[in-house]
Specification:
Blueprint (H helix, E strand, L loop, with lengths): L8 H17 L1 H10 L5 E6 L6 H4 L7 E6 L15 H12 L4 E7 L3 H11 L4 H5 L3 H4 L4 H4 L8 H20 L3 H8 L4 E8 L4 E5 L6 E2 L2
The structure holds zinc ion.
Length: 216
């Protein structure tokens, strides 16, 4: 344990403020959640990006949302091969144990993961290849979406399009999980896509008929 340190003072003081403020006001809610367990109606899959904050966007309280975050909000294809799939495990638990009613994949603007995948697909030697051991291979999940974008557009537009297509690709991969497909077919689970513009605070939602992301 000699390599580890106590929490930074800044976080300790923020925690104390939360404990004395928000927690004190909602203590009964927390006690109920502790006693009765969680029953969140929603699962959200969003990016690790610190600027994306699903609980804030939706005004969610503790117990409302089962949230899984990873780089570029990616769902891998169903692959029951014994490997360590954190995302797949979270989805399985949410659908089979928690029985969430809605599963929402949220992408976002200025996503470093989406940009890195674009670099990987469009450049000979992108920096992400030499600088990182895990990020490049992980972003292979997103590569099929690159084939759906118009590579003659300006790069900034391509990256936005790749982010949108990445959300759609993740939703399609969700349906490759038999227990997700079954829950959707039986009407117990609905799948949704959204894309958050950080600077304007706009949440675009996926219109399943057109495949476009539009303002609600
Ligand atoms: Zn991101």
């Amino acid at each position: 344990m000699d390599k580890m340190k106590p929490l930074p003072d800044d976080l300790l003081s923020r925690y104390q403020a939360w404990r004395d403020g928000t927690f004190a006001e909602k203590q009964q809610d927390y006690e109920d959640l502790a006693e009765n367990g969680q029953k969140p109606p929603y699962m959200v899959i969003s990016c690790c990006d610190s600027r994306v904050n699903p609980t804030e966007i939706f005004g969610a309280a503790a117990g409302d949302m089962f949230i899984h975050r990873n780089i570029a909000n990616l769902v891998p294809p169903y692959a029951p091969d014994g490997d360590h799939y954190g995302t797949s495990a979270a989805i399985e638990y949410a659908v089979l144990a928690l029985k969430v009613e809605s599963l929402i994949v949220i992408g976002h603007s200025q996503c470093g993961g989406v940009q890195a995948c674009h670099d990987l697909c469009s450049q000979e030697n992108p920096p992400v290849k030499s600088a990182f051991e895990f990020v490049g291979p992980y972003l292979d999940i997103l590569r099929p979406a690159y084939g759906r974008i118009d590579s003659t557009k300006p790069e900034a537009e391509q990256v936005v399009d790749l982010g949108h297509q990445g959300v759609i690709h993740s939703l399609e991969n969700l349906l490759s999980f038999p227990f997700v497909a079954e829950a959707v077919a039986e009407g117990r689970l609905s799948l949704h896509g959204a894309w958050h513009d950080i600077g304007t605070g706009t949440l675009y939602t996926l219109d399943p008929d057109s495949g476009n992301f539009t303002k609600p």
